[in-house]
Amino acid sequence: MATPHIACEPGDIAPLVIMPGDPKRAERIAKTRMENVRLVSDVRGIGAWTGTLDGVEMTAMASGMGIPSISIYATELFSQFGVRRIVRVGTCGGISDDVKVRDVIVAASAHTNSAVSTIDLPGVTLSLAASFDMLRAAVDAARAGDRAVHVGSVYSSDFFYSSRSDIIPALDQLGTLGVEMEAAGLYACAMKHRAEALTVLTVSDHLKDGSGDLSPEERETLFQGALDAAIAGLNA
């Protein structure tokens, strides 16, 4: 049964979903890493590509940008298409001094300024966290590689541009590793639907020192390490 944003039938979407933000990156993942790939939905240019990776059926599908966008797709995937696990794989800005450009962050939890952490239970702020089995498998896979890996909290912001200059130093003091725009929404959807989710990120720039002038080719090469860890998390 198709939804307003995913035009295919249950069974066309695999139980395991790889979810970058960029639709073009979802297509590249499908066409370069998966076999027997078919396009099963393409509503609003958000392609869903289903195939196999090392013999395991998976779907690569983009989330778009921001918590509202990823929440739409994650909700429909979990509630209507039998998806059990979604892993977000993307980029973030570094916050902590311990984090450098090109490092990998596995987001064990996500702080947010979004209402997604409070809207379902007024008066209660939900703890938005990754699924443990996925987290453990992704961390093990990432640490087997040649890049530094950090595990901890990230900040999912509703705003890419913000006048609140005090936010980042305060988050840094709390040990927050990086800032992005989707993890909290994904974790909230997984919690609500008793499903599993994880976010694995490549640090593409750093908010303190301004480092991160990476070429498109370098960004794509670095992305592959985080993708391998994300896939390991899906297969946990």
Brief account:
It catalyses: uridine + phosphate = alpha-D-ribose 1-phosphate + uracil. The chain has 236 residues and is α/β, with parallel strands linked by helices. Helices cover 31% and strands 27% of the residues.
Model description:
- The protein starts with 15 loop residues before the first strand and ends with a helix.
- Helix 2 packs parallel to helix 5.
- Helix 4 links the parallel strand 7 and strand 8.
- 31% of the residues lie in helices and 27% in strands.
- A five-stranded mixed β-barrel has the order 5-8-7-6-9, surrounded by four helices.
- The mean pLDDT is 93.
- The protein has one domain: Nucleoside phosphorylase domain (Rossmann fold, 3-Layer(aba) Sandwich).
- It is globular.
- The longest helix is centred in the last third of the chain and has 19 residues.
- It has six helices and nine strands.
- It is an alpha/beta fold and 236 residues long.
- One of its GO terms (cellular component) is cytosol.
- Its EC number is 2.4.2.3.
- One of its GO terms (molecular function) is uridine phosphorylase activity.
- It catalyses: uridine + phosphate = alpha-D-ribose 1-phosphate + uracil.
- This is Uridine phosphorylase.
CATH class descriptor? Alpha Beta
Rg from Cα:
17 Å
- Architecture per CATH nomenclature, i.e. the level-2 architecture: 3-Layer(aba) Sandwich
CATH topology: Rossmann fold
Strand content: 25-35%
User: What is the CATH homology-level superfamily?
Assistant: Nucleoside phosphorylase domain
Number of strands: 9
